[in-house]
Design brief:
about 15% strand; Arc Repressor Mutant, subunit A; homodimer; Aspartate Aminotransferase, domain 1; Aspartate Aminotransferase, domain 2; alpha/beta; 17 helices
Chain lengths: ~475, ~475
């Protein structure tokens, strides 16, 4: 019998040995297509093994199409040639698109020095999760789940969970925004909103005007989509409006992308007058603005500054991308795009083509949480908390790090221009001493402009570590100066 | 005083009337830059209104940059020109990219006849949410949230939640897949996995070979990305392998996209022998395969058929896109891409550039649910349930609808070639009589090929409505024949 040449060993699972034996015999040409296999009972007897192993092997072989059992007739070899000539091997790296390449090159998680256990890390500007109100979140989950859990776990709407959309519209209205002719799409955070929006209204080769420096994820997305960046330098109070006007006049970009509040990475809050001026310029040259609402809620002091989009009145030329998740529950990835209703209608189709919709359950729980008043309490708490931490960090920086200037009015980070040294060199040396932070050049379109800058994120670092870490950075700067 | 010309009416909010008045006076040139405004106390007295309204108006005007208050000095007009020349108006429709246009044109939610209240709808192939085990899901949430709720609400990893990745790897291994050199990325459902994968390894103008007909979302994504489709016709047992070989020989496509199990829309399950043959052909011409694991779990009868990717051994030429969410919790949007580890590494960077990561909380709850054994129980339950419903539907179709053929071996839908009539004409007439379904042509790259076909999804329709609806379709077909 064809199984008599098989010696069962004790190392491998028995059914796998049987499967391999059958395949080998077919490849050797000993089992031909159509030839009948012995019954599972016979095989188990001949080999002195449990019949279940043989049954399992036959089932697996049949599911792979190697053998076929015909009711009442027996089991037969189903293929005549070798299983296949070889494994299908593809050189995927050689096949990666230009888009994929840029995404990887500019992926700071992969390219920047990684945090290692025991290190003090100033890399992150994520919120401190110990400040989250978990009890309130849990309550929101139970409330919403008992009400409509079944519906939330089935398909939802591409535009988003209706009560959340309405809530955010109300929230925008309170900021002085005119809702007429506007609509809103829920996205998986700012990143998706920005990616979808650019995809919707640009073609390869178009130009986007940005502040220099700017949010490094925005730089990545713009470049990955094959778009060009026109960088507009910033003063200590924000974008240089004369240079903005020149840029718009000379060679009009497709869009202007701006972060007016707690600008990343500088932390600058553009004042009301400058906002008016920026709006006036863009209106004059009819260039739409993408406003990044980044950390707008994190105002530590002074009066509320209205977002650019509130200046637009009934106009539709400003698209606002918001995200609570920079300060609250980033893990849920909830953001939104607010703008002209016809534009949002197109974005909805793109969202549907990208991932159908954002998690309906997350949106509903998040909405319940916001509605409960917990958000207001949370904002109050974290403003106080982060403001104290910001002031503490600023004090340490001023005390220990030789600098040309320190930018920003708050947020969860401090942006520092070092005195006469290269930020990356400082980083490399600090890394050896257990301290890591963000080199400033990743925020510049022209990396050379950023070589003296570093960004210190303090939100998740303990005060004692902030002092310790900044002291070390200061020592290294002094040594390298 | 400058406010004496203001007559407060009772229709509008008082603070808005004050704000508008100040803006109008500035535009008229009556308030000049630097001129001092009366104090809020004075204004409230003169106008006979509450001081709080005036304070609110001043605050809003200041946040917009229109006025400025200097501590101890008073409040002054901050701008000298008109607020702006006009509203920034953009013609967004004219600016929509080619990508955006295709996404909208092929968005069936927008282009197909909408369900209206009271109608019997066979459009959906979403699962019936009344079969979901909500208690088990709630338990999973509770377990995972008390353990690591704070972490799950903060940023997670682009590749996905580690325990879920490991769980799915084990799940793939049980299907006979070799894990060596392979890795896995969690995505927001099949749709995102397919979109990201194509974006990673194709450039505009490349060709993807597909079964004809095929999943309409796949057609949409391929076309939106500017790629071409090479359609390979199907027999009643799946793709025509002779035509597949011809297509690969003549003008090799970049990738072959296939749905071997419960193919959408035909419902055909490719048998083991054909799977071997398809693999042999692709191996011969070195063309990678994207395998859509669509509804693989929904096997009603017969033995388990191994996925194509299990035939690949240590080879890396097949990328498998899986999604539990076709049958379980679609609202959570959880799917995955499984394939060569270097490729997955690139996809991870793209995922990060698109939306950072999928909801960490959803992944963790989902994992807990799967791990509890609830998934196995659920699958057992729904197989029985949907099998009965499928058989019932099939019976009604055979009884009432004049057809040339009926395809499929299960799933949540039946694909029917009508006798000598156009599916869209039938649909239009049925719609008037309160029945709606999917016209078959949306699943064909060449729409003309599909004009006789219709798809009947039954998962969320009650048995009595199934019979009633199918009877009506049958009547219309007979009338039009």
């Amino acid at each position: 019998m064809i199984f008599s040449s098989l010696n069962i060993n004790s190392k491998e699972k028995i059914h796998i040995q049987i499967e391999n034996h059958v395949k080998e015999e077919i490849e050797k040409g000993i089992f031909k297509k159509g030839s009948k296999l012995p019954s599972t009972r016979e095989v188990s007897k001949v080999l002195g093994i449990s019949r279940n192993s043989v049954i399992l092997a036959y089932e697996n072989l049949e599911s792979e199409g190697v053998i076929k059992s015909l009711r009442g007739k027996g089991t037969f070899v189903a293929i005549e040639k070798k299983l296949h000539k070889g494994d299908l091997i593809i050189d995927w790296e050689e096949r990666i698109s230009d888009y994929g390449k840029v995404c990887e090159e500019l992926d700071i998680v992969k390219t920047e020095l990684p945090w290692k256990k025991g290190m003090i890390s100033f890399k992150s500007i994520a919120p401190d999760e110990s400040l989250f109100d978990l009890e309130e979140f849990k309550r929101a989950f139970f409330n919403v789940f008992s009400l409509e859990g079944d519906k939330l776990l089935n398909y939802g709407y591409a535009k988003g969970y209706k009560p959340l959309i309405d809530y955010i519209k109300g929230y925008m209205e309170k900021k002085g925004v005119n809702l007429q002719g506007k609509d809103l799409l829920i996205t998986n955070g700012f990143t998706e909103g920005f990616d979808i929006l650019l995809r919707a209204v640009t073609e390869k080769g178009d130009t986007i005007a940005c502040e220099e420096p700017t949010h490094n994820t925005a730089i990545k997305i713009i470049k990955a989509q094959g778009l060009n960046i026109k960088s507009i330098p910033m003063d200590s109070d924000g974008i240089d409006t004369n240079l903005l006007e020149e840029a718009l006049m000379d060679n009009p970009p497709k869009l202007v992308y701006l972060i007016p509040s707690y600008h990343n990475p500088t932390g600058i809050v553009m004042n009301g007058e400058k906002r008016q001026e920026v709006y006036r310029i863009c209106e004059k040259y009819k260039i739409p603005i993408i406003e990044d609402g980044f950390n707008e809620e994190l105002m530590y002091s002074g009066s509320h500054v209205a977002p650019l989009v509130s200046l637009c009145g009934k106009g539709n030329g400003i698209v606002y991308i918001g995200s609570f998740s920079k300060i609250l529950f980033p893990g849920l990835r909830i953001g939104w795009v607010f703008g002209d209703e016809k534009l949002i209608d197109k974005l909805e189709s793109i969202k549907r083509a990208k991932n159908i919709h954002s998690s309906a359950l997350d949106q509903a729980v998040f909405h319940k949480y916001m509605e409960s008043g917990a958000f207001k309490r949370y904002i109050k708490k974290i403003r106080k908390h982060y403001k104290a931490k910001y002031n503490f960090t600023l004090l340490q920086v001023k005390k220990y790090i030789p600098h040309e200037c320190i930018l920003g009015q708050g947020g969860l980070h401090v942006f520092i221009k070092l005195k006469a040294v290269n930020g990356r060199e400082v980083l490399n040396e600090c890394y050896k001493r257990g301290v890591v932070f963000m080199p400033g050049d990743i925020f510049f379109n022209n990396n050379n402009n950023g070589h003296q800058w570093i960004r210190i994120g303090f939100s998740r670092v303990k005060e004692e570590d902030i002092e310790k870490g900044i002291k070390i950075i200061g020592e290294v700067v002094k040594e390298l100066m």
